[in-house]
Design goal:
Chain lengths: ~250, ~325, ~280
């Protein structure tokens, strides 16, 4: 039943897609029918998967660096009071910069290889992780900090032993959001100058009016995005066993 | 007192003005999707607009600039707009992919594409590209063009490294990240380099083994097009080209009228270099030329089979 | 059983205070003032708690009971004109945390990512010392949770969690224990059980227990203070003699309970300082 459910969902979505095509008469060069896309996938699957591996690598590295940088920034903001005044506005501003302004600069410094794409993805992933973790660190249950202080905990111990573990669920939320936006980050990076990857493939197919191939690449990206999210979500739930999904049942004394 | 005045005098006058104006005109409306943001390649269109040539032929043309050059032909094929500015090489591929499109006019009758290098750079001839990096932006035909240009010198695409620099062609060349760029327009990127103080050297694709083609054409959907209206459009356009050729400086003023953001040095230099490339007879069609290019596309593997020209290009009588 | 009532002292600055100043682990407040949003919560408050006894602090909500407790714990700074002396004649500075104090709050404050045993040994870990697991296990056994040392707090009931908190408080082994309504979130029967457990295990330590339950105060404390008014003033109430935990059905206790309720109700509507019993 667990594996049947996603299959049913996929089948349902494909059906809706086909119905939209039948009803709305949209031309095939704007929205191709599922059958055409499936055929394109079958014919080009080697190419698609090859490009997919590049994008997956960008996503993985982007998640790693973005999460690391985000967590460190949150810690700095929580622990150093001056950091809050100086770093927080920069953090927020970083999200407002449109990619086409930033990408050429990144490409200039990091070249046209994978580094600039990973940098782009990192930038997009960094923010949700940093803000969620920082929020979690700020909102530590005040009772715990009181208790810890009466027990003689130093500021550092308070941070590492109480605030950080208490904020891990918030960090997990940020990581979930980051995982959901990571594919966008990688693809956006590819659009501004790449020779490989699903984003590049989609642009290329679009330019050659191979719309079926473009959608096949797009669906492949969506598929991998869901898989990655599922993996990250499960890992996070395993890593934080004290945060049960269901409400705990009260045991009788 | 003022309120009474507005009610009794101004408001009715306004109403008469608006409605009366409507009744008097009954122009045919056309939506035209440009290929890119407004630039000197579109000069005749704006001259025709500003000089009132469209209105004189009973037309009201709304010109829209897209952000993605791939969209306009698709939208015209889907019946959402009347006219699109597109590229001849693209047309061959689009029609082969089944899009209902037909070329009915030409705006720019020569290629604008070049292989661009720095004058002081290591590449003095195309043969020097061996083992070097060539930058391109994704449009779909760069490798075909390069293959043809390299073949003349006994080279293949394996002898060079293609780097996707997207639209930053000049910066990539100036920064030395690539040794040459393809897809640089002779009226734009060449001038961009000059403004930065660098001398560029262009290899014109039609001189290096690629058959000549029209860089900018006007396409419509053959199932929806009103041939009489579009003929009037071409007449107005021809008036625009004529005025442009005879009065280039006044035309520039018309181009930037109400569009002050277009008045910069790059556009002024590009304007000067584009003047000789506009189709003097927008409606005219050279079938053999189109067939020759279609054959080239087939030989390069970009399309499976070259179609007959009348299936995708037409002459409006 | 004959019941001797403790006569309440008329003056909270009792004549015992001078003797108590020499005690090892008493609490003494002199001229302590605290302001909240501009108004005085306490003004020049005087309080002496003798060593080894459990003193209860009752009063209406918002009068400042918890603030007083936090003030003594060192979590709440107060105006420099006041002095708090805890234990061995140390004058405590406002906001300075004493090492003689253990703190138990209304919420169990168990860290959800640690199991019961690790929660009990929390103090040692926070001070970067080696935890004494054997002693922790023994304490868990004494509060009746011997089989639960690996359990996560989410799997324990409210009463069980508060018992772990009690074990944690005992683990700290401090002479002075401050408790802020520790059992108020539990159901009546669990509360009775935990009161008895606490009375037994915490015997001999100096305890200041803030509670809103007069029955609880009568059951387990040796002195009862009522806090009322703004700025707050303290007055004592009488309670029965006898070893704690006292029988809730005892008639003398019930009589004192009725009187206490009457006084608390008066205190609730009171805005003038110093209500006389």
């Amino acid at each position: 039943m667990r594996f049947l459910r996603p299959l049913i969902i996929i089948a349902g979505l494909v059906l809706i897609w086909q119905i939209i095509i039948w009803l709305s008469n949209v031309p095939h060069f704007i929205l191709p029918a599922p059958a055409r896309v499936a055929e394109a996938w079958w014919v080009h699957h080697a190419t698609i998967l090859g490009h997919a591996s590049v994008t997956l690598l960008e996503i993985a590295l982007g998640l790693m660096f973005g999460a690391l940088l985000g967590a460190l920034s949150a810690l700095a903001l929580a622990y150093f009071r001056p950091a809050r005044r100086w770093l927080l506005p920069v953090l927020v501003a970083s999200q407002a910069i449109p990619v086409f302004a930033l990408a050429p600069i990144l490409v200039l410094w990091l070249g046209y290889g994978i580094a600039s794409k990973v940098a782009m993805a990192t930038l997009i992933i960094y923010f949700p992780v940093a803000t969620s973790f920082y929020d979690g660190l700020r909102r530590t249950e005040p009772g715990w900090t009181d208790l810890a202080r009466t027990m003689g905990a130093s500021r550092w111990v308070l941070l590492t032993r109480i605030r950080v573990p208490a904020a891990l669920p918030a960090l997990a939320s940020g990581l979930r959001v980051a995982t959901a936006v990571a594919p966008i980050g990688a693809v956006v990076g590819e659009w501004v100058g790449a020779s490989a990857g699903l984003g590049y493939l989609m642009l290329h197919a679009n330019g050659r009016v191979q719309i079926d191939l473009m959608f096949a690449a797009l669906l492949t990206l969506a598929f991998f995005a869901v898989i990655i999210y599922f993996i990250v979500d499960t890992s996070l739930r395993r890593a934080l066993p004290w945060q049960p999904d269901k409400l705990p049942t009260e045991q009788e004394e | 007192m003022l309120f009474t005045y507005i009610r009794r005098v101004l408001f009715p006058a306004l109403l008469i003005f608006l409605l009366g104006g409507q009744a008097a005109q009954a122009n045919d409306k056309l939506t035209l999707l440009l290929d890119w943001f407004i630039n000197p390649d579109h000069a005749p269109l704006f001259v025709a607009q500003e000089q009132g040539y469209f209105a004189a032929h009973g037309l009201e043309v709304e010109m829209i600039a897209p952000a993605d050059p791939n969209d306009p032909p698709k939208l015209v094929a889907a019946g959402k707009a009347d006219i699109a500015l597109s590229y001849q090489p693209q047309l061959h591929v689009q029609v082969a992919a089944g899009l209902p499109l037909t070329r009915f006019g030409t705006l720019i009758a020569t290629p604008l594409n070049t292989l661009l290098v720095l004058e002081d750079g290591p590449v003095k001839s195309i043969a020097d590209l061996k083992g070097r990096k060539v930058g391109y932006s994704i449009g779909g035909f760069e490798d075909a063009l390069l293959r043809a240009m390299l073949a003349r010198h006994g080279l293949t695409l394996d002898d060079i490294t293609l780097v996707n620099v997207n639209f930053s062609l000049s910066p990539a060349l100036l920064a030395g990240q690539v040794d040459a760029v393809i897809g640089a327009y002779r009226n734009f990127e060449l001038n961009q380099l000059a403004i930065e103080g660098y001398k560029g050297r262009a290899f014109y694709v039609e001189e290096e083994g690629v058959p000549s083609y029209d860089e900018l054409i006007l396409v419509a959907n053959p199932d929806h097009m009103d041939r009489a209206v579009l003929r009037r459009f071409l007449d107005a356009l021809e008036d625009g080209v004529r005025y442009l050729v005879n009065h280039p400086d006044e035309s520039w003023e018309l181009f930037i009228r109400g569009r002050a953001e277009l008045d910069d040095e790059l556009n002024r230099l590009a304007w000067r270099d584009t003047l000789t490339r506009f189709a003097l007879r927008p409606a005219a069609l050279d079938r053999a030329r189109y067939a020759r290019f279609a054959q080239f596309m087939q030989d390069q593997g970009l399309i499976e089979k070259a179609l007959t020209v009348k299936d995708y290009a037409t002459v409006l009588e | 059983m004959t019941n001797n009532h403790n006569q309440p002292s008329d003056n909270p600055a009792s004549k015992n205070s001078r003797a108590d100043k020499n005690s090892c682990a008493g609490i003494s407040l002199t001229a302590v003032s605290l302001r909240y949003e501009g108004k005085y919560l306490f003004k020049e408050l005087q309080l002496d708690l003798p060593q080894g006894q459990c003193s209860a602090l009752l009063g209406p909500s918002g009068v400042g009971k918890s603030s007083l407790l936090r003030l003594i714990a060192g979590l709440q700074p107060f105006e420099p004109s006041g002095r708090v002396i805890i234990g061995k004649n140390q004058a405590q500075l406002p906001g300075h945390l004493s090492t003689e104090i253990a703190y138990m709050a209304q919420q169990d404050l168990l860290l959800p990512w640690l199991n019961a045993l690790d929660n009990v040994t929390l103090g040692a870990r926070l001070r970067r010392q080696r935890p004494d697991h054997a002693r922790a296990r023994d304490l868990l056994r004494r509060v009746g949770l011997a089989d639960y040392e690996r359990a996560l707090p989410a799997t324990l009931s409210g009463g069980m969690r508060q018992r772990v908190a009690l074990a944690r408080t005992l683990m700290e082994d401090r002479p002075i224990i401050l408790m802020d309504e520790p059992f108020s979130a539990l159901d009546a029967i669990t509360r009775l059980r935990l009161q008895e457990l606490a009375a037994k295990l915490l015997r001999g330590r100096t305890i200041l227990l803030v509670t809103h339950d007069p029955l609880e105060a009568l059951r387990i404390s040796q002195r009862i203070f009522i806090m009322s008014g703004r700025p707050a003033r303290l007055s004592e109430a009488r309670l029965p003699e006898g070893k704690t935990p006292r029988d809730p059905a005892d008639t003398a206790l019930l009589a004192d309970h009725a009187e206490l309720l009457h006084r608390l109700r008066a205190a609730d509507g009171d805005s003038a300082p110093g209500v006389e019993p």
